[in-house]
Specification:
Order of helices and strands: HHEEH
Number of helices: 3
Shape: elongated
Helix content: 55-70%
Radius of gyration: 16 Å
Largest sheet: 2 strands, antiparallel
Strand order of the largest sheet: 1-2
Structural class: alpha+beta
Amino acid sequence: MQQLLITLGIIFLVLGIIWPWLSQLPFGRLPGDIHIERENFSFYFPLMTGLLISIVLTLILWWMRK
């Protein structure tokens, strides 16, 4: 458990440092992300972005356990 928390902390630290470059990637604007705009209403649900992040995290954690 300690190794997992330290690893996650390092990952978050690296993501925080490279965030300016990551924000230029198309995550959050992928095909399949739901975005509805009306006059006084805006709804955004990043469906495909969430699925992609889930798959990547699952593969990373699966790889770490082996």
